[in-house]
Design a protein that fits this description.
This protein has 11 helices and 13 strands. By secondary structure, the chain is α/β, with parallel strands linked by helices. The structure holds S-adenosyl-L-homocysteine. S-adenosyl-L-homocysteine binds at residues 117, 121-122, 160, 164, 193-195, 216, 258, 260, 289, 291-292, 294, 335-336.
Length: 372
């Protein structure tokens, strides 16, 4: 074990002021602005903020260490996708993915090391829960991705990496506020994805910043969802729909449902009809993606043909859906593949290099509009 978990981005404005006051022995005045601008406009480590005097920089370097140490960085999709594996101060490992599209650049951040939600098809769920990330560790993922992105501005952040954001509510929300205030990301470009923690969704609805909500649905009947997404046993579909309605009414944001299509499990016409009936009254948009392969789950993603048929069935029943193009499969950066364990070799799966489609909406994949 190393240092206690912390990141220089764990300090909010007043904590930085207190730290500078302590180091300088006097009110920091414009030094505080220089430090803040260095961290958030310059995206610099304190040691590199050259507007500050050298002695202060070296004190700050000691008191404000980076929270993320790059363990590996992999690049895929012709340079348009980058995945990092970070080592945190206590040796926990988490992943972040940066995806460039023609019209935007999106970072997919982790909120926990591991996950306690135990969805069997998800690689992070398979590894179990390690710990919550701190606010700074979440914010720093975006800062580091923006550093790499250079001239291409990170416009969107999706909380769809490792972990369940609403199970680490306070730190996740503090990160949302920091991204908004300090990095200038607009609330409509921030998306929180959840398995469906109803109290968390209700809290989100009360926040001042209206962020987008994505719910990982995967089944629209309780029996199947109890199996695929075990938290459904605690908050079944009817309660989830009520909470979603509250969020929509309070924020005016469009709701989206994530649906990983699993061959013969949730990709039959009846599944599409049930999903359409569930989504329609909420006006929810449905994002379809064939299940990505993970080491610990013996099922496979739906074929291209079944995906298209499912999307047709949804459309015939009045629901809006988009088929998403997987990003980062060859670097194991695709949805559900984030698993901070370098010894695992993913299983081969014939559909994993699917590449058709174009990008337009938020999310870790590009989108393929439905055929007419
Ligand atoms: N815990 C949050 C966010 C992390 S998971 C949530 O569940 O929403 C991000 C998305 O990837 C979720 O929609 C999740 O259901 C999906 N996912 C997990 N494993 C997957 C897999 N093997 N293939 C495709 N999508 C997967």
């Amino acid at each position: 074990m190393g240092r206690l978990p912390s990141s220089c981005y764990d300090h909010d404005h007043s904590a930085l002021e207190a730290l500078l006051t302590d180091l300088l022995g006097t009110a920091p005045g414009y030094r505080l602005d220089q430090l803040w601008q260095g961290l958030y406009d310059g995206l610099l480590d304190p040691a590199a903020i050259t507007t500050l005097p050298a002695s202060l920089r070296s004190d700050l370097a000691e008191r404000l260490p980076a929270g993320l140490v790059e363990e590996t960085r992999s690049v895929g999709d012709g340079g348009e996708t980058t995945k990092w594996l970070w080592r945190l101060a206590d040796d926990a490992l988490v992943e972040t993915v940066l995806m460039h599209y023609d019209d935007r650049s999106t970072v997919c951040v982790s909120t926990q090391s591991g996950c306690a939600m135990a969805c069997g098809f998800c690689a992070t769920g398979q590894m179990g829960f390690d710990r919550n990330l701190t606010t700074g560790e979440i914010v720093e993922q975006v800062v580091r991705a923006q550093r790499q992105a250079g001239e291409r501005r990170v416009s969107n952040v999706v909380f769809m990496g490792m972990g369940e954001p609403l199970a680490n509510y306070d730190r996740t929300w503090a990160a949302v506020e920091r991204l908004h205030e300090a990095l200038g990301l607009s609330a409509r470009h921030l998306t929180i994805s959840t398995v469906g923690l109803v109290p968390g969704i209700r809290r989100l609805a009360e926040e001042d910043l209206p962020v987008n909500l994505a719910v990982s649905l995967h089944a629209a009947d309780d029996e199947l969802r109890d199996e695929l997404v075990p938290i459904n046993r605690r908050w079944p579909l009817a309660e989830l729909a009520d909470a979603c309605r509250t969020h929509i009414d309070a924020t005016g944001r469009r709701l989206s449902f994530e649906w990983a299509l699993i061959h013969d499990v949730n990709d039959r016409p009846g599944d599409a009809r049930r999903l359409a009936a569930y989504a329609r009254p909420l006006g929810a948009h449905i994002n379809l993606i064939p299940l990505n392969p993970t080491p610990g789950w013996p099922t496979r993603g739906s074929s291209r043909q079944r995906v298209l048929a499912f999307a047709d069935e949804l459309r015939n029943h009045g629901a809006n859906a988009t088929i998403r193009r997987t990003r980062g499969t060859e670097i194991d950066a695709a949805c559900g593949q984030l698993r901070a364990n370098r010894t695992v070799t993913p299983v081969a799966w014939p559909g994993r290099r699917q590449t058709d489609g174009t990008g337009s909406a938020d999310g870790p994949q590009g989108d393929l509009p439905l055929p007419d």
